Amino acid sequence: MMKRRYDMNDNKLYIAQLHKVIERCDFLEELENKSILITGATGMVGTCMIDLLQEYDTLKHANIGIVAIARNGRHMQETFDRYADKANLVCVVGDVNQSMPQTGKIDYIIHAASNTHPLAYASDPIGTIQTNVLGLKNLLDFAAEKKVKRMVFLSSVEIYGENRGDAERFAEDYCGYLDCNTLRAGYPEGKRVGEALCQAYRKHYGLDIVIPRLSRLYGPTMRMSDTKAISQFIKKAAAGEDIVLKSGGNQLYSYTYVVDAVSAILHILCKGKDGEAYNVSDMDSEITLKDLAGILADEAHTRVIFDLPDEQERQGYSSATKALLDAGKLEKLGWSADTGFNEGLTTTLSSISLKYSRSILNL
């Protein structure tokens, strides 16, 4: 008998982690009987956000309406087929860079659409900038028209640029060096302009906007096309292959498990102050690339191999050697990470390994 395609619900630990967030976040009652528009719905964050909201809706009968927007119809169907019987989820194939769909009342917007990995930066530099500027402008116009209660623009650790050696961790008022005259600069500069555009719309239209600045993320909802270092390491480990490092691996970064990141975004959505940016980072998950590669290689019983990147790969890579976020401001809203680094990696590896096994069997 042919087995069915991989379903995120197969990962019971992941579902339990979503339930833990729901139990902690009593403020989610504010979202009941409300409608939320989520762009980038099939990305790592968008998928996890919709999973959590659907679990909450099922457990609490919350009547949360979700409008999910993504560009790829096949990815949309594959990702959310398990919710085919859920009337509260409306999936729309569309590109926010072009136009916004016709919808009913929208209370909240979460702009999670963006190229977020090196190959995309290098191969689609124009689209990388457009989604964070033009796509955001279209959403802001839409938000003003719909008179939404609040909009969330997902920004990034990348806006801080390179550490100038004067800060152990980046606080929200830090601004490091960023060379704008490079191909890769389209992503961090796009996020910087996006944040400024949000402030302009707050002033002109009175929109209520909050800005989570995400650290490097990982988790079971990552797309298999993701080329971030941690994503490549996880895919190699899941496939039982040697892990390839494209540098000496001494870069020290902050990481956050995607379920914790979604929990943070919801804290900011419901409890954050209008106009403020908040760092999202699990400060107990700070590790060098070579140590991260070593942990995953040990799990997979494989090796770490050092290999220099080709020219296209190099153009997409960050030159930052240390990027740690100070999440103290967010923690004052009551947020903290629930998932330890080892648990997060185990959950992610389990999901990606199952995706590989079923892909190999063409199931």
From TrEMBL:
Keywords: Decarboxylase, Lyase, NAD. Residues 36-280 form the NAD-dependent epimerase/dehydratase domain. It holds the Pfam family Epimerase. InterPro entries: Epimerase_deHydtase (IPR001509), NAD(P)-bd_dom_sf (IPR036291), UXS-like (IPR044516). Gene3D superfamilies: NAD(P)-binding Rossmann-like Domain. Its cofactor is NAD(+). Transmembrane segments: none annotated. This is NAD-dependent epimerase/dehydratase family protein. It comes from Kineothrix sedimenti.
